[in-house]
Amino acid sequence: MNILPEAAASPPSLTLEGVSVRYGERVAIQGANLSVASGELMALVGPSGCGKTSLLSAINRMADGLPGCRVSGSVHLDHQDAGALDRASLRRQVGMVFQQPNPFPLSVIDNLRFPLSEHGVPRRQRDALAERALRDVGLWDEVKDRLAQSALSLSGGQQQRLCIARTLVLAPRVLLLDEPCSALDPVSSRVVEELIGSLKGRYTLLMVTHNLAQARRLADTVTVCWVDGECGCVVESNTCEQVFQAPAHPITAAYCGGEVG
């Protein structure tokens, strides 16, 4: 029996209320509020150092193991308090893809078998689930004859799609994407960007990007983060059209207009 959760009829909304992240005495981001609707993609934009990645790591509790890190506020998936879930259950529901492709130093197929094994999926089911995930990211035809080769032999763009497949194979409901295209060449970046666009509706997505053009192409909503003093904060969160065409905050207007940042 497959112990992975069945796909929900629709992915959950993701809501953050008053989320703050501290590293010792330094406040990375203070009192962040945002809400991503079911199946939509929100882009988190803003200059370096305004707490965007810290906010992502707080959602699926990647920050829990960091010395001196404290997270406050609440995160909800629909009406479920994410803080009430154990970390393994939360991370199965909320997958994360990083800026730098980070495949395991294993074969292509074992990059997908490994997380399935760790979550107790029976051996007889793993290869079918792995194939489905590779097809979902458009990688199957490129690697089906190389499944036993090292994942590190793949190109950078292929490695990033493999990492996305490794996340999808556990049937998450929410995807966190931390600048998933920034380490790739333009051609690979376009392929990964098109893949991300195809995931909208099936997953709820929150993506950090420094590429404002990419945010305009992909995002349904945009949240602008900024640095107030030495502390990150959210200055505006709205539809993509509103943020770029009629921003409510002068910082948003200046940043999205290329005047600052």
Topology at a glance:
Layout: E1 14-23, E2 26-36, E3 41-45, H1 52-59, E4 69-77, E5 80-81, H2 87-93, E6 94-97, H3 108-118, H4 123-136, H5 140-143, H6 156-168, E7 174-178, H7 186-199, E8 204-208, H8 212-218, E9 221-228, E10 231-239, H9 240-245, H10 250-256
Parallel strand pairs: 3-8, 3-9, 6-7, 7-8
Antiparallel strand pairs: 1-2, 1-4, 4-5, 9-10
Helix pairs in contact: 3-4, 3-6, 4-6, 6-7
How would you describe the overall organization of this protein?
By secondary structure, the protein is α/β, with parallel strands linked by helices. The protein is built from ten helices and ten strands. The protein has a six-stranded mixed β-sheet, with helices on both faces. Strands 2-1-4-5 form a four-stranded antiparallel β-sheet, covered by helices on one side. Helix 3 packs across helix 4 (123-136) and helix 6 runs parallel beside helix 7 (186-199).
